[in-house]
Amino acid sequence: MQKIKKISLLLLFGLSCSCNYLDIVPDDVATIDNAFVMRSAAEKFLFTCYSYLPNEDNLQEDPAFFAGDECWYYAVSNNPWNIARGSQNIVDPYVDYWDGTRSGISCYKAIRDCNIFLEKIDGVPDLDDFERDRWVAEVNFLKAYYHWLLLQMYGPVPIMDKNLPVSSGTEAVKVERQPVDSCFTYIINLIDSAAMNLPDRIENEATERGRITKGIALAIKARILVNAASPLFNGNPDYASFTDKKGQHLFPSQADPEKWKRAAQACKEAIDFCEAQGAKLYHWEPNREGLSDTTITKMDIRNAITEKWNPEIIWADPNSVADRLQWYSQARLLPEATPNIQSLYAPTLRMAELFYTNHGVPITEDKTWDYTERYSLRTATAADKFDIKEGYQTVGLHFSREPRFYADLGFDGGIWYGQGRFDDKDPYYVQAKMGQAAARKDVAYYSVTGYWPKKLVNFNNSVSTGISYGAEPYPWPRIRLAELYLSYAEALNESQGPVSDVYRYLDMIRERAGIPSVENAWSQYAKDAGKYRTRDGLRDIIHQERLIELAFEGQRFWDLRRWKEAEKVLNAPIMGWNTEAEEAGNYYRVQILYNQRFEKKDYLWPIKEQEMIDNEKLVQNPGW
C-alpha cells in the first residue's frame, strides 16, 4: 500500500515524464535528455509548456463560461454546467485542474514540464544566452500562471518550485498546502523575475504572436494582486479557522488594506507600460460609408473582442482560437438552419437585466425608465431601427438600453449587424419564437433562454442557407486593456476612496460604450443621485461596470467569488423566455429554468478524495 501511495504522488508532483514531449524527440527515443540536445527540440519543449493553457474554444475546459449564472444550457453532459447545477463533488470533481480530469487541465503536470525545461535548458549547446534568458523568463511566467490557476480555484495549494528527484522517499513527496499569502508571494516574485527578461513587444509577429511579453506579465500580475486584495482572499472570516494539520492558518485572519495599494500600483504600472507599447481602447474604422453612429459604437464594442490582434488586447492566445465558440454563440438568421450553427450558449435573463439603460445607470435606478413595465409588449418604431427591427413586437426590457446591451446580446427582434449584410439599412434581425429561424429545430442546438452572446461572434462571418457556417477565428483575448482600467479604478477606490482617477478610468470605458460619465449619469438620471460620491456606492458602480464590460469573457464567474458576492447573486432562479411559444404574448412569459443554489463551500474547489487518502498531509477545503 505504501508503494502504491508513493507512485500516485510521484505521478502528481513531477517524477514521471510528460507524454506531451514525445512528439518532439528524434527516432521515437522517448528520453528527456533528447528533448534538449539541440535548439529546435528545446523550442518544441518550450511550446509544450504553453500547450497546457486552457482552450477557451472548448467550453468544457474553463468553468467560467458555464459553471455560473452567465449562460445556461440544456444537456447534462457538460461538466462545468454540472457545477452550476450544484453537482460538484469530492469523489470525481468536475473541471479538476489539480489532476486534469473531468475536462480540467492538469496544472501540476504543466508545472512539472516547466520545471523540467528550467532544469535542462542550460545544456542546449546551440542556444545563445539572450534567447535562453528569454525562454527561461517565458517558462517562469507560465509556471507562475499555472500556480495562479490552482490558487484561484483551490485557495492554498502546494508550491512546486522544483521537481522532486525520483529517489525521494515516501514522506518527501507528501507535500503540504501553503498559506494563500505565501502562494501569492511566490507567484508574484516569479512573475517579477520573469518580467526582467521578457521582450517589451513581439518583433517577429508572423511567428511569435501570443508568446509572453513584459506587458502580459505586468497585466497578469495586476490581475493576481487585485484578487489577493479582494475579500475572498484578504482576511476572509469564513476561513478564520481553516488550518493545516500542524495548526498553521491557511488564510490571513484580518484584511490588509495595504494589499489594495499594492494592487493599484501594479495596475497603474501595467497600464503605463502597455500604453507606451501602443495599447489603447479599440475603435472600429469601418471600410464603408453611410453607417449610423449607433452601428459604429456597437462595432467598437464587438470588435474589441473579435478583431484579432487589435491594440486593446494585451494577451491573446493563438492556441485557444475562438471557432466552435462562435458556432455556439451565433443565432440562426435564415429560415433553413446552417448545419453547424449550434446556438447553445444562452445568456440568462439575469444578464439581460444587468446592462444599463441608455442613460448609463441600472434599470432599477433610472428614474426615466419604467422598470415595472419591462416585461410588457412594445412595438419598435423608426427611432429604434438600428437596435430593434422596426415594427417588431418585443418587450420593454429591450428598449432604451445602453449600446453594450445591443452589441453583446442577440434577442428576438434584435438587429444583428454583419454576417454578410453590411448595410445597416437592411441588416439581419433575430426571429426567435417557435417556428421562426432562430428557434429550436430539434432536441438540440438552440438557445434555452432566448438570448445569444453576439459579442463573441465575428461580424465578418457569413451565414448561408444550407451551407456550413464559416467562422472567422480569432485568438482568445485572455486580458485586454479595459480590464486593467476597471481593475485600477477598483483598487484605487478601495485604497483611497473616490479620487479623480477612479472616475477618469471608468469614464474612458463608458465613453467607448456610448454612455454618459459616471457623474453625469448618476447626478441626472439616478434615483440615488449621490451614490457615486461615496466609496461604498462607487464600489457597487464599479462592480456592475465590470460585470457589463467583461460580460461573456470568463470574468464574472471569478469576480463574484473574489468579491464574496456569489452567495447573494447565485442563490436565485435562472430564468429565460418561454422559447416553446409561437406568439409574442406567450413567448414573453418568464420561465424559471433552474433554482440555483450556492453554498459557502462553493467558493473553492474540492480536492479529490483519493488525493486526501494518498497524502495524509493534505487538508480538504472547508465544507467539503
UniProtKB/TrEMBL annotation:
Residue intervals of the RagB/SusD domain: 340-624
Glycoprotein is among the record's keywords: no
SUPFAM superfamilies per UniProt: TPR-like
Residue ranges annotated for the SusD-like N-terminal domain, each copy included: 74-224
Domain of life: Bacteria
UniProtKB keywords: Cell outer membrane, Membrane, Signal
Major subcellular site: membrane
Protein location: Cell outer membrane
Keyword Mitochondrion: no
PROSITE patterns in the record: PROKAR_LIPOPROTEIN
Signal peptide feature range: 1-21
InterPro entries the record matches: SusD-like_N, SusD_RagB_dom, TPR-like_helical_dom_sf
The family this protein is said to belong to: Belongs to the SusD family.
Protein name (record): RagB/SusD family nutrient uptake outer membrane protein
Originating organism: Compostibacter hankyongensis
Taxonomic placement: Bacteria, Pseudomonadati, Bacteroidota, Chitinophagia, Chitinophagales
